[in-house]
Amino acid sequence: MSNDRFDVSDQVVIITGAGQGIGREYAHAFAEAGAIPIVAELNGQNAHKVAAEIEGKGGKALAVETDVGSEESVDAMVAQTLDMHGRIDVLINNAAIFSVLPRRGFDDIPLDEWNRVMHVNITGSYLCAKAVVPAMRQAGGGRIINISSGTVPQGKTGLMHYVTSKAAIVGMTRVMARELGDDNINVNAVMPGYTETEVQHAGMNDGGRQAVQDMRILKRRETPDDLIGTVMFLASPASAFITGQSVACCGGEVML
Questions:
Q1: Fewer CB within 10 A of the terminal residue: the chain, N end or C end?
Q2: CB of 108 within 8 A of CB of 162?
Q3: How many other β-carbons are positioned within 10 Å of the β-carbon of residue 165?
Q4: What integer is the mean pLDDT of 5-14?
Q5: pLDDT tens digits, residue range 108-124?
Q6: pLDDT > 70? residue 201
Q7: Which of 105, 74, 116 shows the shortest CA–CA distance to 91?
Q8: Domains parsed from the chain with CATH numbers
Q9: Alpha carbon distance 165, 48 (integer Å)
Q10: How many angstroms separate the CA atoms of 110 and 249, rounded?
């Protein structure tokens, strides 16, 4: 197999929630591979900071302040991307509410918090996919990579709204894959384990981190580097015959 099967250079890659954490690392990695990341981020200052970091290293990037829960905002982000680059090759639905969520029993979750998580994590992914599909159809294909979570097969307690939203992403991925197969649009999901970045998590402490590592076959912490290869593979020609799948990338914390 030739190396160009894994080539993502010149691809236009929308990454939601790319102003910090794992999304920021995805943006840097794709730029280093020669792709053009679209940093779609609610915090405009963070979006422009990440784009400037990439451009400072000689890469290309476009920062677009985006609220994934707003159809108007998502449509504007997609329109700006097409105006600037003329196409969209990959969408990575990464934006989600997670780090700010405290752990508590499901019957103690306030309704407004539940609704906020569902709206951003599920509806946001739906709106972004819906917005990019026309351009991908016109181009003859594309890739949608939805970020789910390893908490889903675990049935992780204390975060039922988050786990439920990420379970919905798996169902969404399967339906989208079937509906978009004839358009040559591959749709897959990635299920990360708990991944350590600069973002602090309200529901995690040192004991929790150690417990997660102890569950894994590969007993170490997970970093964004552990996810980048999987995501880039799903964006590359090498994964052309893979669609509708959920890939757990968590050091064996779960097995699907």
A1: N
A2: no
A3: 26
A4: 97
A5: 999 999 999 999 999 99
A6: no
A7: 74
A8: 7-249 (3.40.50.720)
A9: 28
A10: 31
In DSSP notation, 191-249 reads EE--B--SS--TT--HHHHHHHHHHSSS-S-B-THHHHHHHHHHHSGGGTT--S-EEEE
In the chain, alpha helices (H)? 21-32, 44-56, 71-85, 111-118, 124-139, 151-154, 160-180, 206-215, 225-235
Where do we find the tokens 């250079």? 9
| Cα radius of gyration rounded to whole Å, the chain | 17
Burial label, 115 (beta-carbon count in 10 A; 0-12, 13-18, 19+): exposed
Question: Cα dihedral angle (170, 235, 137, 180), rounded to 10 degrees?
Answer: -30
Residue 3 has pLDDT above 90, yes or no: no
Which residue is it, tokens 């990440």? Answer: 50
Global pTM reads 0.94
CB atoms within 10 A of CB 137: 15
- The three-state secondary structure class of 105 is coil
Which residues are identified as catalytic? 162
Q: How far apart are CA 64 and CA 94, in angstroms?
A: 15
Comparing CA positions, the residue from 8, 13, 180 lying closest to residue 81 is 13
Q: What does the pLDDT look like over 136-159, one tens digit per residue?
A: 999 999 999 999 999 999 999 999
**What mean pLDDT do residues 125-134 have?**
98
3-state helix/strand/coil string of 187-206: EEEEEECCECCCCCCCCCCH
